[in-house]
Specification:
By secondary structure, the protein is mainly α. 51% of the residues lie in helices and 11% in strands. Strand 4 and strand 5 form a beta hairpin.
């Protein structure tokens, strides 16, 4: 079995590190010879899987208890909304129950800025094999490398992402979706205990120094009583993502220090007349600021955030070249899910703050979707 394990990011790996890359498959480099592979394929053909039995076992494991079901879901904020999907734990369950499957993931190398991981999944019965590589940043916003413990944690997160993505590319999504739906229902629990579960979830995040207001802003609701079963499932998925190292709690809730918050609140917008229309021209030019007066629905804080976002955009891409114009639009599309300023202003303040923080820290990689569900 041959595979191409090079990806578009391999050019960034130094030659010294690249030399450590190997033909990572289930052939000779894994200690298997041709006869071993033939035996495995022949055995898979003799004892084919039953999709019905595999699905039943997967659902039983995924819904064994509420905690297991919760761990099968992850959720992250992206492009002005919350994206949910099946987690690494669910990938492990469906891989174990699918049958006649070989799957592996490991860290393959690292350079000055990234750690690289690779996952390989081989369906012996259909003879379908896919290799997937992912990378995670191991430097902070100042370009300084993490310490050894943090690098180890980040490498483990990259490995988990590689395993999750490669499993869900080999096992049909129609199979995965039924198991995932069952896990979501089990994670939500019984609606008669909704009030108690709300209190438990708020207490958990309070222990992480997250306020009720931050949670309400994240979910886009006004009151605690508005938290529904679906909202609880989303919050549980976010907790799983934090635990697995997919995303940090600071990135989700934008926990700035008091000084930065005070500065944002006290800054006043310039006293200019409101523009009649904001469009992609503002993004392309990268220097025009959005002004608000008493006739708008924007409060002072939101108007200041829009100004800062456009100012930062102009600083990142200051030229009027076609490439810079496209880059501005692409960045706003990735961070906020929108390219028209009037639409971005409708987003919650919390989303605007988180996006601005990501732009300033240069933590956004618009070329990477490793942390998105497949």
């Amino acid at each position: 079995m041959s595979q191409n394990n090079q990806n578009e990011n391999s050019q960034t790996v130094p030659n010294l590190v690249a030399a450590r890359r190997e033909n990572y498959d289930f052939g000779p480099s894994a200690g298997l010879v041709g006869s071993d592979i033939d035996v495995q394929v022949a055995t898979a053909k003799r004892f084919p899987r039953s999709i019905g039995e595999s699905k039943q076992r997967a659902i039983e494991l995924a819904t064994l208890d509420q905690k297991t079901a919760t761990d099968c879901i992850y959720a992250i904020p992206r492009a002005g909304k919350i994206i949910e999907g099946p987690s690494t734990r669910l990938a492990e369950i469906v891989a174990a129950t699918w049958g006649n499957l070989r799957v592996s993931a490991k860290t393959i190398c690292e350079d000055d800025r990234f750690t690289y991981a690779q996952g390989v999944c081989w369906d012996l019965e259909s003879n379908t094999a896919i290799s997937y590589e992912t990378k995670r940043r191991i430097t902070n916003k100042n370009g300084e490398r993490f310490n050894d413990d943090m690098i180890t944690t980040t490498s483990s997160a990259a490995t988990s992402i590689a395993l999750r993505n490669v499993v869900f590319r080999v096992i049909p999504r129609a199979f995965v979706n039924e198991v995932y739906d069952a896990a979501r229902k089990a994670a939500a629990g019984n609606i008669r205990t909704l009030k108690q579960r709300r209190a438990e979830m708020l207490q958990y995040f309070a222990g992480q120094s997250v306020s009720e207001k931050q949670i309400l802003d994240l979910l886009g609701i006004a009151k605690i009583d508005d938290i529904s079963i679906d909202h609880l499932t989303t919050l549980k998925g976010i907790a799983t993502s934090i635990k697995e190292g997919v995303v940090s709690i600071e990135a989700i809730f934008n926990r700035d220090d008091d000084q930065n918050k005070a500065k944002s609140t006290e800054t006043k917008p310039e006293n200019k007349s409101q523009r009649s229309q904001a469009s992609e021209d503002d993004v392309v030019n990268g220097s025009k600021l959005y002004q608000a007066d008493s006739a708008t629905d924007l409060n002072t804080q939101k108007a200041n955030l829009i100004n800062e976002i456009l100012t930062e955009l102009g600083a990142l891409y200051p030229n009027d070249t076609i490439d810079d114009q496209a880059a501005r639009i692409k960045l706003l599309k990735y961070v906020f899910g929108k390219t028209v300023i009037d639409e971005i202003t409708k987003l919650p303040v919390q989303i605007l703050e988180a996006g601005l923080k990501a732009m300033k820290s240069q933590a956004v990689n618009v070329e990477s979707n490793d942390d998105l569900p497949v």
